[in-house]
Design goal:
heterotrimer; A mainly alpha; B alpha/beta; C mainly alpha; A: mainly alpha; two-stranded antiparallel sheet; B: alpha/beta; Rossmann fold; 9-stranded mixed beta sheet; 5-stranded parallel beta sheet
Chain lengths: 368, 429, 301
């Protein structure tokens, strides 16, 4: 792990990506912007799994429930106390982190399958609490409105989508004009989705940057040491129990942020928005990303969002029956999950890196 | 240096991936989104897979069965109706993203019969069909809030609200079962909370109330419910839940020889669905039932006969149950609304048509529709019946007794509504 | 009466959790894997049973057919999926979570494929014997011949498996392979074959659970029926309460869970169905981390 020696925090890179995303958001279709928000939410949530599972070696099948804690905290504070949005998000992080701390303390006594089972039971049980406390709004949930200030009505015009390359070319074209003139020719009008995308993307960049630097810090190293060999880590003076609880707390806080953003993107918070399937898809995303590859979260998130569309296309090509069509997305996700674990267990990025390293090693040894 | 390069590469890949997904919009000239010279596109999201899909997954087939019939008989002024259906798995996040696709990618003219209070609320709050001017026709839930035209200006409800139902049930209890001990089984969420509010308005006091968590209903759970009702010595037991709860309750009651006076809410009271789960018809006998539409087994009813014939041809082997009837009824009403919206229907003219003529739309329900310029309330009441020897809900003494009311504190009144005769061949006129 | 019925409801529910917990324990003992696809396998076996009932007309023939079908499927899963897993993903950071992820994936695959084949609608298997409650002094109990049968089947399975494990050479091999695979291998035990057998036994137990769960309800089942996800969670929690390693513990854990949920629903609130198992599990884990009958080593697998 040569990267851990580097002290650089790569701040300029994150800022650059942010600027690019901002410019892009002004030129792409509204539907894609809204999907971009979903991707950003997944990026945050999956990075919390990577921190927890990939680095600290703990499994959670209940991160959906932690997202729910964050979402409810944000929504209730917004509705009951009219807190500023930014504070709602901060509260979401804190509330979920406290939940994670408690769970992590239980988790420190458990491991492997026990932890998986406990978190699984949490994922099933927690959302049903919404019906026990009127303030949480029951099954229909409560509203969570995060601006923006009212814009002109969004009128949808009938249009023919361009091809992939057509898209790329036309966007590059517009970018060029923008850079040359400083104007925004053809920039799309302001919309709610754009506003939400900016918030979600900014949050994703901040949390990715934070997670990245935590993982490269002494904490990150102690997690990796504990994951590799707990006894050795303890001998080296690492309090593995405390270090695990810490990992759970941080991971939960990040999940809470993702939950609040998810609630923002659907304008409401309700128990059915946090089903068991959500917890499972986060794990799927993390595995597809490569369980130890933070940068891979983008791959994992894009795949999760794209699969239903891909399945749709496949089903139509095959002209298959209705029951096949509706169940194809589920089959693809699950199948992909198994295949990844079996054949690319550490994720595509890590796999590529390992192969390259092997190749280079072979190369240098022949030179000798 | 190397690490930085790799990261930049990664970032670039990510950006490119996003660009690839993007598609810029070029506005084209069209009379109205989703309407061409030959077709009208409508969109629907509902659970096709997942635990909540059972029963509801028959609705798209039912609606399509009617639209196919309509299209084969000339469509709406020559335009064929194209219904695009997407699976939301009963998850608000999915409902939002699928509705986004329907509106932004498939460019439907209107949304038809979306399902689930949480889903419809999430869509209203984030996709905001109202601001986009997209009509949301005939929301498939009994939540009374969607009739609020200030908050949901383009949304139209169709089912009577749970509050209306509980008020009417309460009125009936006061008339027929005064002084008896009443027990209530209800779902431990908004479905049940609305019911409790309605019963309170009607002034019903319960000897015992048994809530159940949605999804926990099973024969094993029902044994527990019955034990509670028995301990409280309830004379009349109201089942105000979904049909799986009704089935579990009645099936288990048969095994335990438990025979109170049953009273079934409309959501879980469809005899076809209950009997398909193996509940003996005899158990239903003598139970009181409430419904806005005729019994799905009543083949003397012209609508039921017409719809079930079409459905049997379109989806052979599938039982004609309440979900199918309601799905076809919504499609039927949508067809009339589109026809009434003029030779070149627009979103605006569609909604104007419902506002001005909606109350007179022919449909299978035996209670009046409440649409007007100021109200988006659909059906406004129920008829009361008794389940027969064969387990079919039929009017007591052969004539339909219907009650109407509102979702507020308005009185429950007996209605004199006469359902309009079915248009010729079941086509909108 | 209410008290007795509450107890009986708990015992009936618990006996089915026990069957599922037995399946979890068998897989755990043979391969140190918690099989989250267990409920999916039970579902698939129930479809095997359904096909057998509709073709052959008898529940009593369908039961062994489903058990054999379930056993073969589970054996195949071990032979193909689990062995590949050991080969490719038994080292590195993924190793700890790989089996959990693979079995969750398998659960999804089974569910999707089953729905594609049999459709999403309810199918029905009729109970072989009466499910009408016994009557004592004019009071009908929440206990029927069928529920008694379920209980008997659980006990018979428990006794048979115990004999198999304790008294036969095969049982010795099973135990040795789980606890000390290397020594077992050196002593001439075909560890791989024994592991496959452990999965097959679990598959058969899961099939029994699936079929009885179905007929003990109203006989209906579908790929999405809530019963099967409950079976997964309750069976797993029961196994954990029982210590995950002990067959007797699995049965006691199942009964304990069933009875405590029944009492909570009856005397606290019937709306607490989904949160009750979690709370019960947490209490057990904190009060008695090694389970009811668990080795003292604790929960560090």
């Amino acid at each position: 792990m040569h990267k851990s020696k580097k002290q650089s925090t790569h701040l300029p890179l994150f800022i650059l990506v942010g600027v690019v995303l901002f410019i892009l958001s002004n030129f792409i279709e509204e539907l894609r912007v809204s999907q971009g928000t979903t991707i950003a939410v997944y990026v945050i949530a999956i990075s919390s799994i990577i921190l927890l599972t990939g680095y600290s070696g703990q499994v959670s099948l209940g991160h959906g429930a932690l997202m729910a804690i964050g979402a409810y905290a944000a929504a209730v504070l917004r509705l009951e106390f009219n807190l500023p949005i930014i504070l709602c998000f901060v509260a979401a992080v804190l509330a979920a982190a406290i939940g994670g701390l408690l769970l992590g303390m239980a988790a420190a006594r458990l491991s492997g399958p026990y932890l998986a089972g406990t978190t699984l039971a949490l994922a099933i049980g927690l959302p049903s609490l919404a019906n026990q406390f009127p303030i949480l709004g029951g099954e229909q949930g409560r509203e969570f409105k995060v601006g923006p200030p009212d814009f002109e009505p969004e009128v949808v015009a009938a249009a023919e989508p361009l091809t992939f390359f057509g898209n790329v070319l036309s966007i590059l074209d517009k970018l060029q004009t923008t850079l040359a003139t400083g104007a925004w020719p053809g920039a799309s009008p302001m919309s709610t989705y754009k506003w939400w995308f900016w918030i979600a993307a900014l949050a994703a960049l901040i949390s990715m940057w934070t997670v990245r630097n935590i993982l490269n810090s002494a904490y990150g190293r102690s997690w990796r040491a504990g994951r590799g060999n707990e006894v050795a880590a303890q001998l080296a003076g690492i309090n593995t129990a405390r270090s695990k609880v810490l990992a759970f707390t941080i991971s939960a806080g990040i999940a809470g942020l993702a939950g609040a953003l998810l609630a923002m993107s659907i304008g409401t918070v309700s128990p059915s928005a946090f089903p068991l399937a959500l917890s499972f898809s986060l794990l799927t995303g993390a595995v597809l990303a490569g369980i130890t590859t933070l940068g891979g979260v983008i791959i994992g998130s894009v795949i999760l969002v794209a699969i239903p569309e891909i399945a749709d296309v496949v089903a139509h090509r095959l002209g298959s029956s209705e029951s096949v069509t509706t169940n194809l997305p589920g089959l693809i996700v699950s199948g992909l999950l198994i295949l990844t674990v079996l054949f690319v267990p550490n994720g595509p990025v890590e796999q590529h890196r390992a192969r390259k390293a092997k190749h280079e090693a072979a190369h240098s040894s022949t030179k000798k | 240096m190397k690490a930085l390069q790799r990261r930049t590469l990664l970032a670039a890949t990510a950006v490119l991936a996003t660009v690839g997904l993007a598609a810029t919009a070029i506005p084209a000239q069209a009379a109205e989104v989703g309407v061409t010279a030959t077709q009208i596109k409508l969109g629907m999201t509902l659970p096709l897979t997942g635990t909540a899909s059972l029963g509801y997954n028959k609705i798209p087939g039912a609606a399509k069965a009617y639209f196919d019939y309509l299209n084969a008989n000339g469509g709406i002024n020559g335009r064929k109706i194209n219904l695009v259906v997407k699976d939301d798995r009963y998850v608000p996040t999915e409902a939002v993203s699928k509705t986004n696709e329907l509106i932004l990618k498939d460019k439907v003219m209107a949304l038809l019969a979306p399902l689930g209070t949480a889903n419809v609320k999430a869509v209203a709050s984030s996709v905001n069909p109202a601001r986009r001017g997209v009509p949301v026709l005939f929301v498939n839930t009994g939540f009374s809030g969607f009739a609020d035209t200030k908050k949901y200006p383009t949304t139209y409800t169709v089912l009577p609200s749970y509050i209306m139902e509980a008020k009417i049930m309460g009125q009936y209890i006061k008339e027929k079962f005064a002084g008896k001990k009443i027990g209530l089984l209800y779902q431990d969420d908004d479905f049940g909370t609305d019911a409790l509010a309605g019963f309170k308005t009607a002034g019903v006091n319960f000897a015992v109330r048994v809530p159940y968590a949605s999804g926990s209903q099973s024969a094993a759970a029902a044994a527990g419910w019955i034990t509670k009702f028995k301990a409280a010595e309830a004379d009349v037991v109201i089942l105000f839940g979904v049909s799986s709860a009704t089935s579990a309750m009645l099936g288990t009651a048969a095994q335990l020889g438990y025979k109170p006076q049953w009273m079934l809410g409309s959501v879980g009271g469809d005899a076809t669905t209950i009997k398909l789960t193996g509940v003996p018809a005899g158990v239903l006998r003598g139970a009181i039932g409430f419904s806005p539409v005729p019994a799905t087994t009543d083949m003397n009813d012209e609508y039921v006969k017409f719809f079930s014939d079409i459905y049997a041809k379109a989806v052979p082997g599938s039982a004609f149950d309440l979900n199918v009837l309601l799905g076809m009824n919504s499609a039927f009403m949508a067809a009339q609304a589109l026809k009434a919206a003029g030779p070149n229907p627009t979103r605006k003219s569609l909604m104007a048509a419902i506002d001005s003529k909606g109350a007179t739309f022919a449909n299978s329900a035996l209670v009046p529709l409440g649409y007007s310029k100021t109200s988006h309330v659909g059906l406004t009441g129920y008829w009361v019946g008794e389940y027969s020897v064969t387990g079919d809900l039929s009017p007591i003494g052969g004539t339909y007794v219907t009650y109407t009311t509102d979702s507020g504190s308005g009185a429950v009144v007996k209605s004199t509504y006469k359902r309009p005769a079915m248009p010729a061949k079941g086509l909108p006129n | 009466m209410q008290l007795l019925n509450t107890l009986l409801i708990g015992i009936t529910a618990g006996s089915i959790y026990s069957l599922m917990a037995i399946a979890f324990v068998l897989v755990w003992r043979s391969t140190r894997v918690v099989n989250f696809a267990q409920a999916g396998m039970a579902l698939l076996s129930t479809y095997f049973g359904y096909e057998a009932v509709s073709r052959l007309g008898s529940f009593w023939i369908a039961l062994p057919v489903a058990m054999i079908g379930g056993a073969i499927f589970a054996a195949l899963v071990e032979l193909i999926l689990m062995r590949l897993l050991v080969k490719h993903a038994s080292s590195g950071p993924i190793a700890g979570v790989a089996p959990i992820i693979a079995t969750l994936g398998l659960l999804g695959v089974i569910k999707s494929v089953v729905t594609m084949i049999w459709g999403g609608q309810d199918l029905r298997i009729v109970a072989p014997i009466s499910n009408n409650g016994f009557t004592i002094n004019g009071e009908t109990l929440v206990f029927s011949p069928l529920k008694l049968l379920v209980l008997v089947v659980v006990m018979v399975l428990l006794i048979m498996l115990s004999i198999l494990f304790q008294k036969t050479n095969l049982g010795l091999a099973l135990r040795a392979s789980a606890h000390a695979p290397e020594i077992a291998r050196l002593s001439g035990v075909r560890v791989d074959a024994v592991r496959t057998l452990g999965w097959a036994l679990a598959g058969a137990a899961g099939a029994v659970a699936g079929l009885f769960q179905t007929v003990n309800g109203n006989g209906n089942f579908s790929p999405d029926s809530i019963e099967f996800s409950l079976l997964l969670v309750s069976g797993f929690i029961a196994a954990v309460i029982g210590g995950l390693d002990s067959l007797l513990g699995a049965v006691l854990g199942g009964l304990f869970l069933g009875i405590s949920i029944s009492f909570v629903l009856m005397y606290v609130s019937s709306g607490l169905f989904f949160i009750a198992p979690f709370v019960i599990l947490l209490i057990v884990l904190f009060v008695r981390p090694q389970g009811i009958i668990g080795v003292k080593a604790g929960r560090r697998a």
